[in-house]
Amino acid sequence: MKRVLILCTHNSARSQMAEALSRAAARDLGVALDVHSAGTEATFIKEGAKTVMAEIGLSLDGHTSKTLWDVPEPRSFDYVVTVCDGAAERCPVYPGQTVRLHYPFPDPSGGSLEDWRAVRDGMREQFGQFVGALRDGTPPPSTR
Question: Which ranges carry the Phosphotyrosine protein phosphatase I domain (predicted)?
């Protein structure tokens, strides 16, 4: 089973959405993935993220904002994917065979529900392609 960590600055929206979308894609495509998300700082899950994910049948209830050190075995991920430039700049060095990818998405915070939906839909496509590549044994897209 491959392990995936999705990082953002606050682990409050984009990384949480990407975690849920990756898990759903893995389930739908029959790929065994252990997916986690974290931030360089922990805060809270934003309501906009909860709302737009619920619209597509994915709940963020039970999700909590956490830092890298709050996830199981924080230094043993096969893939580390950053979804914002701030996290990419502060992402720690990972030992071993970790593959780092950067899929930046704009921060929808403070925007309309349409802004949130646009980020969600872009992430749904990107992380679907990522999981599909893992299923097919091909290199995942290197950047967005």
Answer: 2-133
